[in-house]
Amino acid sequence: MDQRSRFDNMTNLSEDDQKLVFDFGSGVQASAPHHTIHGAFESIVDVHPGVLAAVHDGQKITYKQLDISANRLANYLVGSGLLPGQRVCLVVQRSLDMLVGMMAILKAGCQYVPIDGGVASDQSLRHIFEDTDARFILCLPRFWDRVNKFKGQDAIVLELGMETGAFFSPTRPGIKVSPEDGVYAMYTSGVDVKHTTMTNALLLEPGKLGMTVGTKVAQVLSISFAMGAWEMLGSLVNGATLYLRTSDWSATLTQVDTLICTPSILAKHSQRDFPNIKTVAVAGEACPQS
């Protein structure tokens, strides 16, 4: 290949793009203010407990409510024998319970394995359950039968619901978690991501995308897609409000100001229809200049 056409050759870029790459790739070194995802989330809870954490299909949950529900579930899991460092399969679809499950697993010192229950095939479920050797599986009630059909013999399956673990302590488990411990493992993209990677990406610019209290972030992607973690965790560690879409994309996009998506999703919608959207981040596919 001609050296001049190599992908890592900066001269292939326009002067403006070269400047952007240089500006984003240099400057004063900054450290993330928190070293774990749930630690960053809890810091928001302590300062802004009444702020809305998420909205979905007419339901709402504040940061304090999400924290308490996740604490109860985490304590339930720990009390049932879940050990720090284990992987927990999370078979869900877009819902507030999905967020509770994610945070509870992290608070228990574990790593979640997100599975979109509405998309995953029987073969995929069986493979992931076997490969992770998951001791615990959390699922929405509508996936209970499928999960129990393919789970390992010794796996414990728990239904997710706002009342799950309701009789357990609402206090934080306080389990020691290292920045090098895992946040999630995704089988769709084959990634195994640590806390330090996510806190650096989500609590610092440019990946933070200016998200803060008052920011309204769209949640449009599948939980089993790596970019979905950018939407969900990015919003929750920065105090923004997450708007989880239903089948009506427009209803969500008219309410938000921040959108993270693939170029193909962006191409389906007109900027004129959603004037409130101020920040758009695209990734996951080649992005046309138009």
UniProtKB/TrEMBL annotation:
The lineage of its organism: Eukaryota, Fungi, Dikarya, Ascomycota, Pezizomycotina. InterPro entries: AMP-dep_synth/lig_dom, ANL_N_sf. It comes from Phaeosphaeria nodorum (strain SN15 / ATCC MYA-4574 / FGSC 10173) (Glume blotch fungus). This is AMP-dependent synthetase/ligase domain-containing protein. Residues 43-289 form the AMP-dependent synthetase/ligase domain. SUPFAM superfamilies: Acetyl-CoA synthetase-like. Pfam families: AMP-binding. Keywords: Phosphopantetheine, Phosphoprotein. The keyword Cytoplasm does not apply.
